[in-house]
Amino acid sequence: MNRLLFTLLLAGPAAALDFHDRDAVVAAALESHPTVTRMRAEAEAARERVTPSASLPNPMLMAGVQNKQVDLRNDEMMTMYMVGVSQTLVRPDRREALRAAAELEARAAEKLLDSAREELRRDVLLAWYDLAAADAQLGAIAQVREMIDAVVAAARVRYEVGTAMQSEVIRAQLQASDLEHETLRLRGMRRAALARLLPLVGLPLETEVAALVALSGKEPSADAAFSSAIGGSFAVYAAQDDRLDGHAVLVALEADVARAEEGIRLAKLERRPDVDLEAQYGHRPVQRDMFSVVARVELPLRGKQLSEPRVREAMLRRDAARARIEEERRALVTAMNAAYVAHEDAANQLKFHHEVLMPQSQLAFESTLAAYQTGKAPFDSILTTQADYLRLRLQYLELLARQAQAVVRYEALRRGARGGA
Questions:
Q1: HSE-CB of 403 using CA atoms within 13 angstroms
Q2: Does the reported pTM lie above 0.85?
């Protein structure tokens, strides 16, 4: 009973998630993934630090007795009961710099959250297309298996009537075994894709996922949105310097540079320390009461040892942040170029496969099979054409997945993801 209940609990989320709808799979990952949850909480925490960063510290309340004699007797002149309050007055320019730094930190955290969402979306779609490609290739092998069955049947008929040797039947059966071996390989690829996809959506590895039919293999995808996004030819594409404007990672790094600038400003402001103001009132039971007002300020006598190194450190952090912007920009351009080239390569090959190789291969197999059945073609020819047809069919489906994944990579980079997958 407990085992059945556990199985139903595992199957519940999987049944509610439609794996055929890639957008639904992405939405499930974005909703439940702990990385997004963590970074969202960090961004909200950074935003909550903005207001306190520019506020004055709480005042300090004091109360006690002063100048009490050691034998606990009161001294009429000296003993008094005291209350007081002190307040540190932070300079307005320092408070402004602290608030600006906190706002920049919150902005950087929010942009990194946007980038993490796009990276998660990319990783989910890449695994989803790997799964779809494996399922499509398994479907293609199932179709080719019917052709092999026809070959085996034809070889067996010719052997029974004495027009073929037994070796032809055995070789046809060996070809069918090769298909089984290819099926095992593709099932392993499918399990590997699921091993990447299921944890991203928060499901156990035991979850059963029905075969996807995303890649039909009938015709190459047009990808009009991708073509319009990259601007046509590679020359035009490579000249688009504005394709990274507003990129989440670059905006976050620019916020880090601005925050480093505020750090330089804060380090310089340490040369003008804050003022601590203190007021006290003392009650003497016999003599008159007394009050005191004291202002304290730090003397910046050790500026060379304390302030100047901090200023230099803040400047170096700013320079490092500026270098990171250019470093990340180049990495993004490299990744976007690679995605474009991969898309163009897959598109060109798909077109050639769809218009030339696939029709010729299918026609060659069908004509060779008919010729073999009538005794006009050798057995080796039909095995060769069948192997060529299967190889081209599997290549075509793999190219479809590669083309779609290139679009996914490019769109993720354009929308804020970092390079790499």
A1: 24
A2: no
